[in-house]
Amino acid sequence: MVQIIKADGTFAKFEEHKIERTVLKAGGSREFAKEIAKQVEKEIYENISTKEILKITLRLLKEKPSIALKYNLKTAIMSLGPHGFTFEEFFSQILQNYDYKTKVGLNLKGKATTHEVDILAEKENKKYMIEAKYHNLAGTHTNSNVAMYTYARFLDLHNHPNNKINQGWLVTNTKCTPHAIEYANGVGLKITSWQYSSDKGENLQELIKVKKLYPITILNSVTGDIKDKLAKAKVVLVKSLMTCNLEELKNKTDLTEKEINKLLKEAKELYEE
Q1: How many whole angstroms separate alpha carbon 61 and alpha carbon 72?
Q2: Are residues 190 and 222 in the same domain?
Q3: Whole-model pTM above 0.70?
Q4: Is residue 172 part of a domain?
Q5: Ramachandran region of residue 47, left (φ > 0), alpha (ψ -120 to 50) or beta?
Q6: Helices assigned H by DSSP within the chain
Q7: Would residue 250 count as lying in a domain?
Q8: What local confidence, expressed as pLDDT, does residue 273 receive?
Q9: pLDDT digits (tens, 9 = 90+) for 8-36
Q10: Is residue 80 part of a domain?
Q11: CA 171, CA 148: separation in Å to the nearest integer?
Q12: 137 C-beta neighbours (distance < 10 Å), count
């Protein structure tokens, strides 16, 4: 069995079924997923990095652009940065699609001091203070220190009578360490990470895929200046591109008609089944 190097520098054995499972989640048939996994296994070598495995897989998926784009979802979210504010807007808009009311980037007074709150969310008469912890490097995990200060900030805000905040919520685009999860579960801090959620079935990956709320960075053309202009206009979901008309997008983003049409073409490919 071939040994591979993971994003955090640790070693593991290559597992063909993980490639197969991810292709299935991206919309491929079981037969197609098995075929891709077997082809990847033929091309890998001892101590290959997971980054190189991803490159091989994406090359093999080129004939199915819709599946290739969805397969690269985690990398696309890491490309939202380099700053965390775009991820805050991204998660805020995801929540809006699940019937939450949200506000981003607030300064709220707690009992002891004033806090910068990434997202304030409300649903069914329950109000959440959300700490959005964004990482743009694979292998970076959110640890218990982050969970502890998120809960401490929630307590200070909760104890101010004007806020009426019911629960703290830690959101991250990567993994939380086991200690962070243990602490959060112990104090009642809500967690949403890439593959884990304190609420069953509501991890970040599932929240995105269930309603197809893909980040704009999943499109190959969204780089550099185009990414910056879209982020500045708060166009962070591909869904937003699909629902705006051409003139509206030109006015909001300052992109050219040619650039927008290219984005729309890729967006349509993404949503093809």
Answers
A1: 11
A2: no
A3: yes
A4: yes
A5: left
A6: 16-25, 30-43, 50-60, 65-71, 73-78, 85-96, 144-158, 178-187, 204-210, 224-232, 238-243, 246-253, 257-270
A7: yes
A8: 60
A9: 889 999 999 999 988 888 888 899 999 99
A10: no
A11: 13
A12: 10
Query: Exposure pattern of 77-114 as b/e (b: 16+ CB <10 Å)?
Result: bbbbbeebebbbbbbbbbbeeeebebebeeebebeeee
CA distance 91 to 242: 18
Q: For the chain, what is the domain count?
A: 3
Q: At what angle do helices 50-60 and 30-43 cross, to 10 degrees?
A: 130
Structure token digits, residue 72: 């690269």
Q: What is the pLDDT of residues 94-144, one digit of tens each?
A: 999 999 999 999 999 999 999 999 999 999 999 999 999 999 887 889 999
User: In CATH, what number is assigned to the domain containing residue 222?
Assistant: 1.10.150.20
Give the range of the structural domain holding residue 245, as residue numbers without chain letter: 214-270
Neighbour count for residue 65 (Cβ, 10 Å): 14
The verdict on 50 and 126 lying in the same domain is: no
CA-nearest of 1, 161, 248, 156 to 264 is 248
3-5 and 11-13 as β-strands: parallel, antiparallel, unpaired? antiparallel
Are 247 and 109 within 8 A, CB to CB? no
Are 221 and 205 members of one domain? no
Sheet containing 11-13: give its strands across: 11-13, 3-5, 48-49
- Of the candidates 224, 233, 222, the one whose C-alpha atom is nearest the C-alpha of residue 260 is 222
Query: Which pLDDT tens digit goes with each residue over 198-235?
Result: 987 789 999 999 999 999 999 989 989 999 999 999 99
